[in-house]
Structures are given as C-alpha cells and as structure tokens.
Specification:
Elements (H helix, E strand, L loop, with lengths): L1 E10 L2 E9 L1 H15 L17 H13 L1 H5 L2 E8 H8 L10 H14 L9 E6 L5 H13 L12 E7 L6 H15 L4 H5 L1 H5 L5 E5 L1 H11 L9 H19 L9 H5 L20
Parallel strand pairs: 1-4, 3-6, 4-5
Antiparallel strand pairs: 1-2, 2-3
Length: 288
C-alpha cells in the first residue's frame, strides 16, 4: 500500500487540492529531512508567511528553496486537482447540492482521477489522508464510497485501488502538501507574482506535475447526474440537519466514521454517479 497526503488551498476564484503520493519509506525520509531543514521554526503555514511583503524574499526565499527540493529528492510524486470555484458556486451555492458538490469535493474528484490515471502501478492500493477540514466529511465520504465501488478503479486482483480515506490533524507530514497547494494556486492566480516566484522551487523540482481541472461543463454534468433538475434551495438549519442525519447513518451502518454513505440515495431519491473521467492530465502548473 502507498500513502497520499493532501491539503487544500482556495483564493481568487480557484479551489485546489494537492499533495504527494509515496511509500512509507519515502514519507519517513521526507519527515526527517523536512524537520532537519525547518529546525526550530515551528509548524509551516504558507498562508501566514506574508509572501507578498517586500521583506519576504530576504526572510523566506532561501528556506523555501531548500524545502522545495525535498519531496522530489525522496521520490514522492505530486498531484493536483482543481476547479474554478466561481463557476461551481453559481451552480450549487445555497442548494442541497452544496453538501456533496462544494469546491473541495469537486477538486477531490479531479485529484483522484489524476492519481488513478497516472503511471502509478495499477496493482498498488492507495490510502488517502487529508488535513482536517470542518464541514466537508459527508461529501468526501460520499465521493470515496463511489470511488471504491467504481469498476473503473478496480485492480487486477479485484480490490479497489483506493484502500481508504481519512482526515488527520495538521502535522509535519502534511506541510509539503500545504506548500504544494499554495504554490500551485499562486501559479494559477498570477504566475508573475512574487508569491509564485518564491514558491516555484517545489514545482521546478519536477519536470511534470499531474494535474486535472474540472471544467464548468463537467461540473454541470456531474451535478445533473447527481440531482436531475434544478437543485432545491436549503437554508443553514436544514443543511445542518441533513449533515447530522447523514453522519448518524454512516456510523450506524458501518461502525466507522464517514467511510460509507449508504442512506444518501434515500435523502436525494437519486443514485449518485460513479466518477467521470475528466480528460488527460495537464502540466500547466510547472513554471518555465
């Protein structure tokens, strides 16, 4: 089994989930190297580094360059899935579909498709680990229920290539994914910005980064396959009730938190689709 650790980043019309995949030995080596370079600086949070400041190059450039080289050196593979959040919000904001088709959930669809469509051996099963994020567990559970049961994602031994998924607290092992997600987002927003330049070392360490974007047309297709017709509106109280009900259903049916979502069909009265192929991987995130 191989492991993937992933983080998200959102700003200026984009929602992106990114991270690395590798075996346990590679991850163990990465953590040791990362801690060695970080020293006593404490946890890394890219959003709080103020990389747009005129003092940022002097304070952070050399350090980010050293950190950016580590994942490639230990052999981890980077992957990115993203969506234009403005387009998606126009479709689902304030409706029942937002529970399972927010920017975060749709970006995960694109991410998983990029990973399983890559050169990772088809026999390998992958465990997906995401940084904790409040309010998304139900939709993620639904997505992975479909991924795990999709015939497109079965290995030759008959098991799903997706072993399981889970959420973990912020830790050193998640920091490279935080860096990658932030760096990719800056390339999408403005590739000539200071933030993009300072975080480019991690991207330049790879000749190619497998990334997939869910287009507006694909989002519309996914939505129409999920909820025929216009999604009904839902206020905050009703949405909270729905999430709570779905969480209880998961725990009652499986004994595990958010690993299966068997009662979603009863709530929506419609079968959720299996994952759709989103086209070939792109390489737009590696700066020239």
């Amino acid at each position: 089994m191989i492991l993937g650790y992933f983080d998200e980043s959102e700003h200026d019309g984009y929602f992106l989930v990114a991270g690395f995949v590798g075996n346990r030995r590679q991850w163990k080596t990465l953590v040791a190297e990362w801690k060695s370079v970080r020293g006593d600086r404490g946890p890394l949070h890219m959003k709080t580094m103020r990389l747009s400041s005129p003092y940022a190059p002097r304070r952070h450039e050399a350090h980010l360059r050293d950190l950016g080289a580590i994942p490639a050196c230990v052999g981890l593979k980077p992957f990115v899935g993203f969506v234009r959040s403005d387009d998606l919000n126009a479709l689902v904001k304030g409706t029942i579909a937002e529970v399972v088709l927010s920017g975060y959930h749709v970006a995960i669809h694109a991410l998983v498709d990029a990973i399983l469509d890559s050169d990772i051996p088809k026999r390998d099963r992958i465990e997906f680990l995401f940084e904790e994020k409040s309010g998304v567990e139900v939709g993620v559970a639904q997505a992975f229920y479909q991924f795990e049961n999709s015939p497109d994602f079965k290995a030759h031994h008959g098991k799903s290539r997706i072993a399981k998924h889970s959420f973990i607290a912020k830790a050193t092992i998640m920091e490279p994914s935080d860096y990658l997600a932030y760096a990719c987002l800056q390339q999408l927003i403005d590739a000539d910005s200071q933030q993009a330049r300072l975080t480019s070392p991690m991207l330049k360490a790879y000749p190619r980064i497998s990334s997939k974007q869910l287009s507006l047309e694909q989002a519309q297709f996914l939505l129409s396959d999920t909820l025929p017709g216009k999604p009904p509106l839902m206020d905050r109280d009703r949405k909270a009730y729905l999430k709570d009900r779905l969480k209880r259903d998961i725990e009652e049916k499986t004994g595990k938190r958010f690993h299966r979502l068997t009662e979603m069909h009863c709530v929506y009265r419609h079968r959720f689709p299996h994952p759709k192929r989103f086209g070939a991987s792109r390489n737009i995130l590696v700066p020239s």
